Amino acid sequence: MSGPPQTVSALRSLLAARFPEKLRKAGGEVAAGTPPLDEALGGGLPAGRLTELVSAAPSAGGQTVIARLLEATQAARQRVALIDAADAFAPDAVAPDLLRHLVWARCRSPEQAFAVADILVRDGNYAVLVLDLRGGAERALRRTPAATWYRLQRAAEGGSVAVLVQTTIPLGPAVPWRLVLGASLPLARTAAERAAVAEGLAVQTERSPAAVLEELAG
Known about the structure:
Elements: H1 5-18, E1 29-30, H2 35-40, E2 45-46, E3 50-54, H3 60-75, E4 80-84, E5 102-106, H4 110-123, E6 128-132, H5 138-142, H6 146-156, E7 162-167, E8 177-181, H7 191-200, E9 203-207, H8 209-217
Parallel strand pairs: 3-7, 3-8, 4-5, 4-6, 6-7
Antiparallel strand pairs: 1-2, 8-9
């Protein structure tokens, strides 16, 4: 992460002061609020695991997934952290009250985004951590070392946080889940529109835990 060491320390202190309690136990799933996505995952985003969601830019599907996730977690009284690597999130597309349980970290590079994700996934005060890499330079993203991905994966394992990584191209090596959204859709700005778009999203399962285990065993 760029910047002086006290930046990381200050972030930890801020999180400890704002969210002192641990909200969720390890294991289970977190409903994403997008039926095709939840169904593809067998109930919801798996806690303690990485899920990569690929949506071609400038797909509104990825934005709709985040908006629906905010609605679902608000209803469940859960907190969400969004690490925005390329300023891809559009807060004006959701109702202001849906931002109250969201911590939004705007980063300047993939390296910084991964560093912040590493801190927040260990914090344990969130139901879901979204690492949004959409909009980042493809060349820079492809240069992300595999060790960086595995470090995040190990940090999440056995914990209570479901990690959703949003990308425009498949990136994560050996991610337990990789889902691909279909064609781009119009940007939905109301709850009713988002619900309709979410119901109609085409989700393809490209990787699953069983596939990863077979690959590692081979």
